[in-house]
Write a structure and sequence with these properties.
alpha/beta; 364 residues; binds zinc ion; Peptidase_M14; 40% helix; globular; 11 strands
């Protein structure tokens, strides 16, 4: 009991000094950073903590401005090959693919700061290197407005979903029509992360939970990796969120208008982030906060989710390494790749049926 008490005291986070408050923290809880504020904040962190936090450009985007990567490591090692030799797991967090869903942008700024400033958190980087893309859809974030997500409960102003060429980047992972996607692929392949998280806000159904979760479909991963995800990782994430008073539930689709019509799990093909990640034996997650909850609890729930993810990857580091190695061996030896996805038969139903269903399906 005493040990537990001491452990929780050691994890206590002291409030940041005034000069390190993010726009979200100093803006009354209904403000998200602009692109300039976000990158400027990471520049300031990188200058103040050059050993632990490294900021670099990571290729072009369709906006004309570069993509950025932030690397947090215990000893300042930003080399992926060396990181792998040190048997460290890589947790890759991507924010702002849909900049009107910006909780992850603000939560990651706070988490990066706390990881370098709070002594109690620094041990989380002992065997995990964290890579953050502060903003993926730079283009959309620059297109700031207050009217394209009017049915969402804050923030007051935010970016636009499409990129500079009106592409939805969460349909472009495998197709790579955008420069953003090509730069991302370079970054992803460079790091070959163990775990990938892309932060979102829901667009549709109403329910009690502040946080919901799309995990990559375990049944389409190699067996060792799927079993690990289902048996060890997901229970730890759900338990961790429950302890933080953010009970979480899987994000589901309805067959019709109501849950009574049946629930469907989402099969994420490689056009989506987690589907792309799964092609490389990377476990992918899309946390989706509930658009009808206020912005502040959505940011805090995202912060806690990312921290719990980091703790879990560290605690289960050996199991992740074993499962991924087994998955790589299994995929290398495989000679056929049966696709269990939707039938390729032409859709002969009236087009209104498919169109209505698409309209009801919450977007990711
Ligand atoms: Zn989204």
């Amino acid at each position: 009991m005493l040990t537990l008490l001491l452990a929780s005291l050691l994890m206590t986070i002291t409030p940041p000094a005034a000069e390190w408050r993010t726009p979200f923290e100093s803006g009354g809880g209904n403000t998200t950073a602009t692109h300039a504020e976000c990158i400027g904040y990471y520049q300031k962190l990188a200058a103040a903590y050059p050993k632990q936090l490294h900021l670099a450009e990571a290729g072009p985007t369709d906006s004309g401005q570069p993509l950025h990567e932030v690397v947090l490591s215990a000893d300042g090692d930003t080399d992926p090959a060396s990181t792998r030799r040190k048997n460290r797991r890589v947790l890759f967090i991507q924010n702002g693919i849909h900049p009107g869903e910006p909780e992850g942008i603000d939560a990651s700024m706070m988490l990066a700061r706390d990881l370098v400033q709070q002594k109690s958190l620094q041990k989380l980087l002992a065997n995990v290197t964290v890579v953050i893309v502060p903003v993926y859809n730079v283009d959309g974030m620059l297109n700031r407005n207050s009217t394209t997500r009017v049915n969402q409960n804050g923030p007051a102003a935010y970016g636009f979903r499409g990129n500079a060429r009106h592409l939805d980047l969460n349909r472009d992972y495998i197709k790579q029509d955008s420069r953003n996607a090509r730069s991302f692929a370079g970054l992803f392949q460079k790091w070959q992360p163990d775990v990938f998280v892309e932060t979102h806000t829901s667009n549709g159904a109403d329910y009690q939970y502040t946080m919901t979760l799309i995990a990559t479909q375990h049944s389409k991963l190699a067996p060792a990796l799927g079993q690990y995800l289902q048996g060890q990782m997901l229970p730890a994430l759900y338990k961790g969120m429950e302890k933080k008073k953010w009970p979480m539930t899987p994000y589901v689709d309805f067959e019709g208008q109501t849950p009574e019509s049946g629930l469907r799990a989402f099969l994420e093909t490689p056009r989506y982030s987690t589907g792309y990640a799964a092609l490389f034996n990377t476990i992918g997650f899309m946390p989706e906060t509930h658009m009808l909850k206020a912005f502040a609890p959505r940011v805090h729930a995202t912060y806690d989710f990312l921290k719990i993810m980091l703790e879990t990857v560290g605690q289960q580091s050996a199991a992740i390494a074993t499962a991924r190695a087994a998955a790589a061996a299994e995929v290398t030896a495989r000679t056929t790749f049966p696709w269990p996805g939707p039938s390729t038969k032409p859709n002969t139903k009236p087009c209104s049926s498919a169109a209505t269903r698409a309209a009801r399906s919450p977007a990711r």
